[in-house]
Design brief:
Elements: H1 3-34, H2 44-51, H3 55-62, H4 65-84, H5 91-115, H6 120-140, H7 142-146, H8 150-163, H9 166-175, H10 180-198
Helix pairs in contact: 1-2, 1-4, 2-3, 3-4, 4-6, 5-6, 5-9, 5-10, 6-8, 8-10, 9-10
Length: 202
């Protein structure tokens, strides 16, 4: 390979890596805002300012606010799964990690849900989040669910999805003012009761 070609390839790789890093900074800047503010309060100007880039760079990379939201949700999904990861069968750790996630993201998710009827992009994102939550529950309780016949498996999975939903966390932590410890105990009890009750043949 000629030196000129090698140099060109080096610069192309460097530009690609720089563009990728810039994209990550922009997404994280948006996510940081999303954890604190309502979606409709966040402007591209604020995100660009936080990321240290121009608005034109944000638009060129993501096409606008909805494109940025779509990319940010994918990043957020990876972060959520990492926080929720727990050894299979360890109910205590599972609930502890779930609550750790909701303590960080729960209020932001609730704000997005409140705005869902007004923004089609939010509905698509939240539908995706709902399906991913169900997938996580299915994986987290795979050992228990795999032992059940199709009908009780579906009933049990439905119940487990409800018990671990962000609205359950909201009721306990925000509406009832329960401590994290009390919330964890309540959710553990509800999970155990759901498995016991809905896994029975009907």
């Amino acid at each position: 390979m000629k030196l000129q070609d090698a140099t060109r390839q080096y610069h192309q790789r460097a530009r690609a890596l720089s563009a990728e890093a810039t994209g990550r900074h922009i997404v994280q800047a948006f996510l940081d805002r999303l954890m604190q503010q309502w979606f409709d309060e966040i402007t591209l100007d604020l995100v660009a300012q936080d990321a240290g880039v121009t608005v034109q760079t944000v638009v060129r990379r993501f096409g606008g606010k909805e494109g940025l939201l779509s990319s940010a949700v994918k990043t957020l999904g990876v972060q959520i799964l990492a926080r929720r990861a727990s050894p299979c069968g360890d109910l205590g750790r599972l609930v502890e990690n779930l609550l750790r996630d909701y303590e960080e993201t729960g209020d932001a998710v609730l704000r997005l849900l409140a705005l869902e009827p007004r923004y089609r992009a939010l509905k698509e994102v939240l539908d995706f989040g709902g399906s991913e939550h169900r997938r996580w529950v299915s994986d987290a309780f795979a050992d228990t669910l795999s032992e059940l016949e199709p009908a009780p498996r579906k009933r049990t999975l439905d119940a487990l999805v409800v018990v671990t939903d962000v609205y359950t966390w909201k009721l306990l932590r925000r509406d009832m003012g329960r401590s994290i410890e009390a919330t964890a105990a309540a959710i553990r009890g509800l999970l155990q009761s759901s498995i016991s009750e809905f896994s029975k043949p009907q």
